[in-house]
Amino acid sequence: MAGITITEVSGLLDSIYGKFMYPIAKMIEDYGASKDRDARLKELFNFETSSHFAESINSTTGFEGFKPVEENGAYPRDQVAESFNKLFKHKQWMDSFSVSRVMADDDQIGAVKRLADRFLNGFSKTRERFGAALYGSAISGNTDLNFAGSTFEQASASADGRPLFDTAHPSKTDPTFTQSNCFSDAFSQSALSRAQSTMINFRDDNKSVLEIVPDTILIPNDAEAIQQVFGVVGAYSQPDTANNNWNYHFGAWKVVIWPALNEFIPSGTASADAFPWALVAGDFMRQFDGAVWYEREPLSVNAYEDHNNDAAVWNGRARWSAGFFDWRAFCLGGVARGDAL
Question: pLDDT tens digits, residue range 259-270?
């Protein structure tokens, strides 16, 4: 999370608060340089930078491909058509904290540093919670996200306007042709195999098989979920049997356990005796913006003295947007509203 800007205004360095400016500025600089708290987000979103008010992602259908032509035949003219598109509007995110004159008079540098640390951690936590809320909203079958008192329209929808995880994603060229990436099956070796095969067989708007290969399993932080998933992907032989046949899932998956996701999956979402689990195709997700996060402005911090109460105030501001575009990068299992694999 590099690139944090720090600004001091209104002569704060020359006031009684000057002794706090350097340690707080050093904390902020160290935080930006050495603590990449976005690591989990970068496993599940394609990060891009933006210099505009909003970013639009537009897609097209694929070429039909080469055709057999008789001797002296004319070249067939291939063409693409516009497919789905989506607009990502950047949101402004702000917070602040203050240090009282009493704290300054009493040289409470330790307490002030704790305030600054909570301020910075709050920034990271907000970003991670926002990312988790997007996935949680999508798992719940919503298209809009309600977060921190604001509504983010279509944030948890794919570009086709359907929820990211849905049983009827339409084709742009043939709306009667639909595909599902939302299933009710509880996690098991068999369900994982079938979900993997389903993703490989996902088709584009021309109904051509895309051969999308998932590589990541996303689950909430739940002891039973963790035990079941690692019982399958960590077993060299067939799990839960005396069969010594090789388990081809062994060592083939990255497992992302996301505690922040727990907060945003409502009770009743999962199928009976199941937990929500999702497959993510990381390469496809990054290449075709399955999930995208736009950084418009990095965190900037400025400090000033409030002469109404003689407190020192630190303001923080950033701009970003995030959401989903191509549903084919994902497949969800273990939810009551899904199809059977």
Answer: 999 999 999 999
Q: What is the pLDDT of residues 69-125, one digit of tens each?
A: 889 888 888 777 788 999 999 999 999 988 887 776 676 767 777 888 888 889 999
Q: Which residues pair with 127 in a beta bridge?
A: none
φ and ψ of 268, to 5 deg: 95, -5
Q: Calculate ∠ Cα 39-278-91, nearest 5°.
A: 50
Determine contact, residues 188/100, Cβ cutoff 8 Å: no
For 5-49+84-333, which CATH class?
Answer: alpha beta
Q: Are 20 and 110 in contact (CB under 8 A)?
A: no
Kindly give, in sequence order, each residue whose CB lies less than 8 Å from that of residue 312, ignoring residues fewer than 6 positions away: 12, 15, 17, 20, 98, 99, 104, 303, 304, 305, 306
Distance CA 274, CA 271 (A): 5
pTM as predicted: 0.89
- What are the strands of the beta sheet with 330-333, ordered from one edge? 254-258, 216-220, 277-280, 330-333
Q: How many residues does the chain have?
A: 341
CB 14 within 8 A of CB 306: no
